[in-house]
Amino acid sequence: MSGPRLAVLADVHGNVWALEAVLADVRRRGADEVVDLGDVLYGPLDPAGTVELHRSAGITAIRGNQDRVLGEPLPVVPNPTMRFVHEVLAPDHLAWVAGLPVGLDREDLRFCHGTPEHDDVYLLETVTETGVRLKTENEVEALLGPDPAPVTLCGHSHVPRVVAVGGRLVINPGSVGLPAYDHDAPWPHVMEAGSPHARYALITRGPDGWTIEQVLVPYPWKEAAARARHNGRPDWAEWIETGRARLP
């Protein structure tokens, strides 16, 4: 007999269309619990609708780096997307995201956004001057810390992966709402899943360990992309529609 089945999400980024589709798929598959690894609301889409759906669905959530930033004072000149998110979120929405825990441990599972210690560091990827590569086992082990869990689940990079590290597993479910993006630190780079689908992982405990399914879900991504364009982010629209990104 199989044990608990968990649906693990990450990086919704205010994409309520994608979240609705993922939750419908989770219900169809009969998961016992849904855990979100953070970065729930930030984005030029529908953060208010996302937080209401997220809370009504009873999802267990931890805080991502961009959730953390939402709880900090706005800079003197905030970027337009950050200003938009603050304008559409109610005070109780901001209080909810600020109150999320930074991580979660449960039996043989550890849930974090980036690494167990840093919400803004990639656990599985290294960015170099020439591109992005998978970290070595030693590099990942160093970031897992002195007491690693048998299974660590992380987000942040938006790239779905299952990586074996010293007899343990590290799982990134990919992104629900933003399958690609570009970034300028520590060097300009792109992260891309390669298709516009909403992604999550379904993990089931069995007699020999955890069975892992990486799930891709179609949803009305053209609607989400149209909202991004309307809110002044054609780059987000391209990432959402294609799952691809280009360096600026």
- H and E string: EHEHEHHHEEEEHEEEEEEEHH
Q: Which bin fits the share of residues in helices?
A: 25-40%
Structural class determined from secondary elements: alpha/beta
- The CATH topology comes to Purple Acid Phosphatase, chain A, domain 2
Question: What is the class in the CATH system?
Answer: Alpha Beta
State mean pLDDT (0 to 100 scale).
96
Q: Which homologous superfamily in CATH is the superfamily? A: Metallo-dependent phosphatases
CATH architecture: 4-Layer Sandwich
The value of Rg in angstroms is 17 Å
The side-by-side strand order for the widest beta sheet comes to: 3-2-1-13-14
Defining traits:
single chain, 248 residues, alpha/beta, Purple Acid Phosphatase, chain A, domain 2, five-stranded mixed sheet, 14 strands, 26% strand
